[in-house]
Amino acid sequence: MNRLSIILLLVMIITGGCATAQYTPPKVTISTEKIRNESGEFFVHKVQQRETLFSISKAYNINVNSLINDNPKASEGLKTGDILFIRIGAPPVPEEEISVQEDIVEKSLPEKRKRFIPGRDYVHKISLILPVNSRNLNEQNPVSNFIDFYHGFLMAVNDAKDSGMSINLEVIDNKEYQNSYQIVATGKLNNSELIVGPVFASEIEGILDFAGERDIPVISPMDPAAEKYISENRFFYQLPVTAEEQQRTLLKSIPYGSQITLFYEKGGRDAEMLQLTRSILNENGIAFKEFSYALLEGRLVRDQITNLLSTNNDNSVIIISESEAFVSDILRNLNLISTRSGYKITLFGLPRWRNFESVDIDYYHSMNLHLALQYFVDYSREDVKRFLSRYRALFGTEPTPYAFQAYDTGKYFLDILKNEGPSFADNIDEYKSTRLLQSDLRFKRRDNTMGVINFGVRIIVFRPDYSIDLLAPVR
Q1: Is the distance from CB of 338 to CB of 345 less than 8 angstroms?
Q2: In a 3-state reduction of DSSP, which class is residue 209?
Q3: Can you tell me the distance from the alpha carbon of 11 to that of 414, in angstroms, rounded to the nearest whole number?
Q4: Maximum distance among all alpha carbons in the chain?
């Protein structure tokens, strides 16, 4: 695909699709409390559960951007109990803006969803919001991870079309707007069945206000900070897996019957992960020993470490440290104990270890290091090989992790949309873990009022033959 084609695709505006359900927003009560200061007179509004900037501004009949101007922190997201100062006498929302914001809500839709059977001319509208800075795409060698994301998502869309879906893809460059509320005001998101993006948590809230009142799923594809919106909107999907869930999945992979020992650096900076690990082990009734030492003690503690290990059973050794120096030292000690005394040791580490440069990689392989990761590509798989070949042919370059992530996101949600239609959000818990190119997606909704979290984690194992195995999904 040439650069001109990419530019045209990124700026296209395509209409189509339909809204998915009725939604009755929570009633916002106008505050009776008022204050006056040098800037004017204001209502003092205390945010209630499930209220959004959109619903609040609608109740007070003011522009969302005006509300944000008087309450700058509101652009970072609302929490129950927040205080907003709402200007009295602010210009009302123009009629044409109200009609843009409410045109989908006004449509009469069936209250009870039925199994999705699209008509012959049915078209799915998908909105993709990325900071691609499309004005600079005509540079000789534009560098943007989000262009890679767009490429991967476009391939998933093309695959879905080949499977029989009719799709209108609305690509929106949010570099063209000051905030996401302006995107909503353009009407470009109207009738979307799925919104992917924005990619940064700070830009998502304005989209959630709009989508939450129309039951449109919003996919947050890569920013862990967006998890804060889970409690606000049941149609919000957080793809990045939390550190807690990664650690829970890692500990599930420990072989039954092995002796477990927990090592960490004395005075290290890993207290939160250490406490989490202890809690998970205790919750599951798993017995373990633990030991800590300072880095300068490394050559003096080998006998103490040895005494904690079993000579008869396999030893599962969990090391809680992101210090490259400490990890290098403890692995050196464990390797000497294993090779000289014949102790059977299996390591369990933290994701950051993959980026260490000074740790001897032989230690990883000789002691079967296990890591829990959000993303890992097994290049020996046939579907990965096919993706690589197609991507190189289309774009003349290698796919980055952003391209893999976008393809996986598009593949997963477009497949569900094809089979279930826009109401798939009601049944998301019923889908089993899906093994995609780079990630595993397994969604859960903690309760019916909250958004959806991804619990799909990949466990990789460094083998003595210097291969890296991707284990089957851990349940």
Answers
A1: yes
A2: helix
A3: 22
A4: 81
Q: Is the peptide bond before 198 cis (omega within 30 degrees of 0)?
A: yes
Which helix (H) or strand (E) covers residue 85, if one does? strand 83-87
Q: What are the angstrom distances between the C-alpha of 227 and each of 40, 52, 219, 236, 415? A: 36, 17, 11, 9, 24
Distance CA 373, CA 392 (A): 26
Amino acid (one-letter) located at 93: V
For 382, counting Cβ atoms within 10 Å of its Cβ (0-12 exposed, 13-18 middle, 19+ buried), the class is exposed
CA distance 75 to 56: 13
What confidence tier does 126 reach under pLDDT thresholds 50, 70, 90?
very high
Q: How many alpha carbons lie under 13 Å from residue 325 in its C-beta half-sphere? A: 10
Question: Which residues are bridge partners to 170 per DSSP?
Answer: 127
d(CA 134, CA 127): 16
Q: Strand pairing partners for 87?
A: 42
CA 135 to centroid of chain Cα atoms:
27
Q: Residue 157: exposed, middle, or buried by beta-carbon count in 10 A (0-12, 13-18, 19+)?
A: buried
Q: Going by C-beta distance under 8 Å and a sequence separation of 6 or more, which residues neighbour residue 77?
A: 201, 205, 228, 229, 232
DSSP single-letter state for residue 91: P
Q: Is the dihedral of CA 231, 233, 235, 241 positive or negative?
A: negative
**What pLDDT was estimated at residue 310?**
92
The CA–CA distances, whole Å, from 415 to 93, 210, 385, 407, 420 equal 39, 24, 21, 12, 9
The answer to whether 375 and 456 are in contact (CB under 8 A) is no
- Length, in residues, of the chain: 475
Determine the Cα–Cα distance for residues 200 and 467; give it in Å rounded to an integer: 35
Cα distance between residue 321 and residue 327, in whole Å: 7
Residue pair 365/463 in contact (Cβ under 8 Å)? The answer is yes
Residue 154, H or E segment: helix 145-162
Where do we find the tokens 């046939």?
382
State how beta strands 40-46 and 34-37 pair. Answer: antiparallel
pLDDT band at 279 (very low <50, low <70, confident <90, very high): very high
Residue-wise pLDDT tens digits, 17-44: 333 333 345 678 888 888 887 778 888 8
pTM of the model as a whole: 0.75
User: Which is nearest to 150 in space by CA: 163, 161, 137?
Assistant: 137
Residue 419's beta-bridge partner residues? none
- Using DSSP's 3-state secondary structure scheme, residue 128 falls into strand
Q: Cα separation of 386 and 105, whole Å?
A: 43
Query: pLDDT, tens digit, for every residue of 361-371?
Result: 999 999 999 99
Q: E strands, 225-375, where?
A: 236-238, 259-265, 289-293, 315-320, 345-348, 370-373
Q: What is the reported pLDDT for 214?
A: 86
